[in-house]
Amino acid sequence: MKSKKYSDDTIRSLKVLPFVKSKMVKGLLKEKEDYYMAASDTDIEYGHMAFWKDNKKKRLPTWHALVLDVALLQPSSAFMERVFSILRGRAQSSSSAEKTGSAEEANSGSGSDQSDGSDEESD
Fold first, then answer.
1. pLDDT at position 48, please?
2. DSSP 3-state assignment of 114?
3. Residues in contact with 90: Cβ distance below 8 Å, sequence separation at least 6, in sequence order
4. Does residue 27 lie in a domain region?
5. How far apart are the C-alpha atoms of 61 and 12, rounded to whole Å?
C-alpha cells in the first residue's frame, strides 16, 4: 500500500468534517508515525479494507474509526462535494508551500547554471 505523508496541518483540517472532533485529531496525530510504518510494511496486493481490519486494534484505532466514517460518505451530495473541495484546497496549498520552499532554494543560487541539453532539438 502506497502511503502519502500528511502534514500535521492537513490532518488538523479534517475538523471541517462534522464527525471529526479535536480528540480524534489528537489521536490521528499521535498514531501518524504508526500509520506510515503499517502502510509501508503492506504488500501492494493487500486490500484497503483488509488493511484497516488488521490494524484497527493493534496500532491504528483512531485512523480506523475515521476510515469507517469516511467510507460512509456519499461523494455525490452537495455538502460532501464542498467538504472535499475544502480539503483538496488545503492539501494543495500545503503542497504549494513545500514547493515554494524548494523554488526559493533554487533561486538563491544553490542550483546549477549549466544546461543539460534537454531543451535542444534533435536532428
1. 77
2. coil
3. 9, 10, 13
4. yes
5. 17
Which residues are CB-contacts of 62 (< 8 A; sequence separation ≥ 6)? 24, 27, 28, 30, 31
Question: Scanning the structure block, which residue is given the C-alpha cell 469516511?
Answer: 70
The structure's pTM equals: 0.56
CA angle (22 as vertex; 29, 94 as ends), nearest 5? 55
**In terms of C-beta density within 10 A (0-12 exposed, 13-18 middle, 19 or more buried), how is residue 67 classed?**
middle
State how many domains the chain has: 1
Q: Which amino acid appears at position 70 of this protein?
A: V
- The predicted-structure confidence for 77-112, as pLDDT tens digits, reads as follows 777 777 778 888 877 876 666 666 655 555 555 444
Q: Which residue range is the domain that position 65 belongs to?
A: 8-100
As a 3-state breakdown, the chain gives helix, strand, coil percent values, each rounded to 5, of 65, 0, 35
Is 3 a member of any domain?
Answer: no
Please tell me the distance from the alpha carbon of residue 28 to that of residue 116, in angstroms, as a whole number.
Answer: 44
pLDDT digits (tens, 9 = 90+) for 11-44: 998 888 888 999 999 999 999 998 888 888 777 7
pLDDT tens-digit profile of 51-62? 888 888 778 999
